[in-house]
Automatic annotation (TrEMBL):
Family of the protein in this entry: Belongs to the P-Pant transferase superfamily. EntD family.
Protein name, per record: Enterobactin synthase component D
Residue positions binding Mg(2+): D166, E168
GO molecular function: holo-[acyl-carrier-protein] synthase activity; magnesium ion binding
Domain 4'-phosphopantetheinyl transferase N-terminal: 60-148
4'-phosphopantetheinyl transferase domain residues: 163-256
Keyword field contains Magnesium: yes
Subunit structure: EntB, EntD, EntE, and EntF form a multienzyme complex called enterobactin synthase.
Cofactor requirement: Mg(2+)
Chemical reaction(s) catalysed: apo-[aryl-carrier protein] + CoA = holo-[aryl-carrier protein] + adenosine 3',5'-bisphosphate + H(+); apo-[peptidyl-carrier protein] + CoA = holo-[peptidyl-carrier protein] + adenosine 3',5'-bisphosphate + H(+)
Gene Ontology biological process: enterobactin biosynthetic process
Binding annotation for CoA: S137, H138, D166, E216, K220
Organism: Gemmatimonas aurantiaca
SUPFAM superfamilies: 4'-phosphopantetheinyl transferase
Length: 304
């Protein structure tokens, strides 16, 4: 294996590259893992080496190799992070099945993971075994994945159905030169809240990005229910920015098809070095879809 690949493999054996895993673990019993994006994930030889090492399935590799080179690295890193999180979620998935009296012989195991390909659904999310739910987010240098056992009763109430995760870079003073997208992301009430609580322009821009990240995570957690384009203004948040570098986000779902259902969402955010990490999970006693199936697309004009 090339020296670069050996170094990359060693980095995956260490702890998560983000410090937010303990926080996420408290949210629905999810597992959060990250993987760095580097040049080794873009070359044909590097991708083939990952398959040989068991970090990537052959079908995932073929999907990656068909992508433009600029997309390969983030996709491959996302699947590596997903596989890492899946491995760590096995004990929880087994515990959930045992508690429900379900058959556990067909559940995930370290051995079975090597033979599973996590491709993409028609909506663009990761295609996973029915016993778990997962979400992936990535930027140019880092990919992040969240995995949780489905139908696990969470302390907050309800059966966990789907999770969502989003990763955004924290803004710098250079970002203030770019036009704000507040009116595309925030509801009128959210604009009032953000402007009233922001202490300076950079803080206001960071508050905007936190809203963006949390809403993206929420959309991923409800998409399997509604299967449609969701506008940013169909979810309203009141984030407690006074709490410092993390907080839970009270969520108000404004989607008409969710009004008479028991579907609920909890979300939280965390500042981790240069990153904003947002996570969300949806709960319901049923996983029935409530919206029409539509082609995958962007949310609020911004691609997921």
């Amino acid at each position: 294996m090339p020296e670069r690949m050996r170094h990359h493999e060693a980095s995956l054996a260490g702890p998560s590259r983000l410090a937010s895993a303990p926080l996420l673990t408290q949210l629905g019993g999810s597992v959060l893992r990250s993987a760095p994006v580097d040049d080794a994930l873009m070359s044909d030889a590097g991708i083939r080496a990952l398959v040989e090492a068991g970090h990537l399935h052959g079908d995932e590799a073929e999907l990656a190799l068909a992508m433009p080179e600029g997309r390969r690295g983030t996709f491959v890193a996302g699947r590596m992070a997903l596989r890492h999180a899946m491995r760590d979620a096995i004990p929880m998935a087994t515990e959930t099945a045992t508690a429900k009296g379900a058959e556990t012989s067909g559940l995930l195991s370290d051995a079975s993971l090597r033979h599973m390909a996590f491709l993409r659904t028609a909506r663009g999310g990761p295609q996973l075994p029915s016993a778990v739910t997962g979400s992936v987010s990535h930027k140019r240098t880092l990919a992040l994945a969240a995995i949780a056992p489905r139908h696990r009763r969470v302390p907050e109430g309800g059966l966990l159905q789907h999770v969502g995760v989003d990763l955004e870079r924290r803004p710098t003073t250079d970002d203030l030169r770019r036009p704000s997208i507040a009116r595309r992301i925030l509801t009128p009430q959210e604009i009032v809240w953000v402007q009233a609580r922001a202490t300076d322009p950079l803080h206001e821009r960071e508050a905007l990005l936190i809203h963006f990240a949390v809403k993206e995570a929420i959309y991923k957690a409800i998409d399997p229910f509604v299967h449609r384009y969701v506008r940013f203004t169909e979810v309203e948040l009141e984030l407690p920015f006074e709490s410092g570098d993390r907080g839970e986000a009270p969520v108000q779902l404004l989607l008409p098809e969710l009004r008479d259902t028991d579907i609920a969402v909890r979300a939280q955010w965390h500042l981790d070095g240069d990153w904003i990490v947002a996570t969300a999970f949806s709960t319901s006693e049923s996983d029935a879809q409530v919206g029409p199936g539509t082609a995958p697309g962007s949310i609020g004009g911004l691609t997921r």
